[in-house]
Design brief:
Length: 302
């Protein structure tokens, strides 16, 4: 059961309207790294998790993300207040109104006109929110790693938004939301490492022939070695021949077919076989008429 408290988790103080900034803030409202995506990601994980500790944590954080959605939504609404009234009441001339919506780098005209300066579930480019943002796969050791990455990405977006405004109230609120991303990362990482073993994700171990092998597939200037591909834990393979057919087979695609299928494939192959000894005229050539190309120039043929 959800019960809503009208008091925000963090007080929103906006100094002045700024519809352009409001449009950018939509990235954390209806974008892939935004608060709704986070809430739905953790909520779906919580519902199906059988571990009581993780379930409780995921429900707590999912619900907090909804409160963050409310905070960022109020920031957007406050930034749009002036433009919302002006547009709704048509207080300016058409030319002046258009200038306000599109001038000075303001890209908010889509959300202003389509959504009446509201808080639509779209990102800053106007792309609607989608459940495709939710990457829950139902395996805790994979989902928790994905959660850590998601919180990391959200923190970076908040850093970029903070850099875009000099409004102290907005900076404080965004700083709070950014800091909570750090707290959530810590919780998810603690939960991950409370599972033992937790790597590799899932139940099945990797094939020992390939689990510690690093294939140097991109060769040339700029190659570097480091702990990601050198040391006692790595078998570094740079020989091109040893990078192919590593299973010891031929490296060719093979399939065993019933005799009837083999006969049908032979018939099809014979019917569709090309003849490399002929040079048939093409439609393009016929369309050229008596024109031929010589020395890079089009000339008349005889």
């Amino acid at each position: 059961m959800f019960a809503h408290n009208k008091r925000l988790q963090y007080t929103v103080r906006v100094s002045e309207p700024n519809p352009g900034l409001a449009n950018l803030m939509l990235e954390q409202f209806g974008g892939p790294q935004g608060e709704l995506a986070a809430a739905m990601r953790y909520f779906t994980q919580a519902v199906s998790d059988d571990d009581p500790g993780r379930k409780d944590m995921l429900f707590d954080i999912a619900t907090e993300e909804l409160s963050h959605l409310e905070v960022i939504g109020h920031i957007i609404a406050m930034l749009n207040k002036g433009a919302k009234g002006e547009l709704a009441e048509a207080v300016d001339s058409e030319a002046e109104m258009y200038k306000k919506l599109t001038g000075a780098g303001n890209d908010s005209h889509v959300t202003q006109v389509l959504y009446g300066a509201g808080t639509p579930l779209v990102n800053s480019a106007g792309v609607p929110w989608t459940a495709a943002y939710i990457d829950t796969i139902g395996e805790p050791t994979a989902d928790l790693r994905s959660n850590i990455a998601a919180e990391s990405r959200a923190k970076i977006v908040y850093e970029r938004l903070i850099a875009l405004t000099d409004d102290p109230g907005i900076k404080e609120a965004l700083g709070f939301l950014m800091t909570r991303e750090i707290a959530h990362q810590k919780s998810f990482e603690k939960a991950l490492y409370s599972i033992s073993p937790n790597f590799p994700p899932g139940k099945m171990p990797g094939d020992p022939r390939f689990a510690d092998t690093y294939f140097n597939m991109s060769q040339g200037p700029g190659e570097m070695r480091g702990p990601w591909n050198q040391g006692e834990k790595w078998n570094f393979v740079t020989d091109r021949d040893k990078q192919m057919a590593v299973d010891g087979g031929t490296g060719e695609a093979e399939v065993k077919l019933p005799a009837k299928d083999i006969d049908l494939l032979k018939q099809m192959s014979a019917r569709t076989m090309s003849d490399p000894t002929i040079d048939p005229p093409t439609g393009a050539e016929l369309g050229m008429g008596n024109q031929t190309v010589a020395d890079g120039k089009t000339v008349s043929g005889k």
